[in-house]
């Protein structure tokens, strides 16, 4: 972006223009949640000011308007991820809800004792705990996929030697929320489908940083959260290929998802509505579509390029500071905005507090990825995660403050 373009962008994010602890806020916690542009905030307000009504139930004008906007939002999200059929887009409250739905509704009916589910040691707890629970209910087993040391992506050499007789599902993230690593989803999908294995992908950290085409990748299911994509909290998307709609069971039952309710049984609407019982997050879905429209208008390639430039600058800068440990594998060329690191002899929580004194919002902890922390042999890391509205100046400030934080703790320890 040109300096003027970046200024215009930052003007669209009012929250960025504030001081924290008497310093200008540097918001580097975008992998946890992103800030919302004015267009999204205004869309929420406008909906409640002029159109608010429940959907799919009313013949009155407001009800029709809200229904139209909600279904148009579905269409916008469908096009955004390259889905060829809007019915493949199921609105959920977020990635976690989407994965729990897939575990119960899509996977559970197809699993029996002794079946296997493949996953990786990189998964966010949201894409691990539901599968652990599912295994306990069904007697299926989780099997961790081999990763290559240099890239920490799936090792196809070892994969091709695996006995896959009992494997029914692969559940895997697209981009890691700790290391920013991208898994080769298309290649993995081809491998899986040759063996009649279904693949479910956690795209929470991918959708904000990559152009997604679910049909080209060929995945069976793909999930993400609106709040990490500059939209509101409480809304997410579960893409589920239409060929699986019949065999997938609803997990929530109630209003909106039914066709006919008899005294002792009922029958249900077609997908996606049979999977959306009750009043959905209407305003949130509409505002998420607004976020997508906003991003597309800016040019996704420009958004991604800015993130690429900033995260490389931060990575190289941190690498040049003595006593900074970076956790990224050797052959990583794109961080998707995410840099994980530690400062020697300083607990990440203490460091994060020191950064906060200087106005920098960083995340410290296990990042909901405890198996990965064990793999990396660290209890926790610091994580800086960048978005397109961040600036080179902010990156350079963080590098300067990193030196100061190190010095402060070194002197304090003397
Ligand atoms: N998967 C990944 C890779 C994530 O980064 C996150 C959010 N940190 C989730 C799943 C869960 O998303 P949510 O909390 O929005 O349901």
Automatic annotation (TrEMBL):
Cofactor(s) needed by this chain: pyridoxal 5'-phosphate
CDD domains the record matches: SufS_like
Enzyme Commission number: 2.8.1.7
Pfam families named among the record's database cross-references: Aminotran_5
Domain Aminotransferase class V, residue spans: 26-397
Catalyzed reactions per annotation: (sulfur carrier)-H + L-cysteine = (sulfur carrier)-SH + L-alanine
Keyword field: Pyridoxal phosphate, Transferase
UniProt family annotation: Belongs to the class-V pyridoxal-phosphate-dependent aminotransferase family. Csd subfamily.
NCBIfam families according to UniProt: sufS
Task performed by this protein: Catalyzes the removal of elemental sulfur and selenium atoms from L-cysteine, L-cystine, L-selenocysteine, and L-selenocystine to produce L-alanine.
Protein name: Cysteine desulfurase
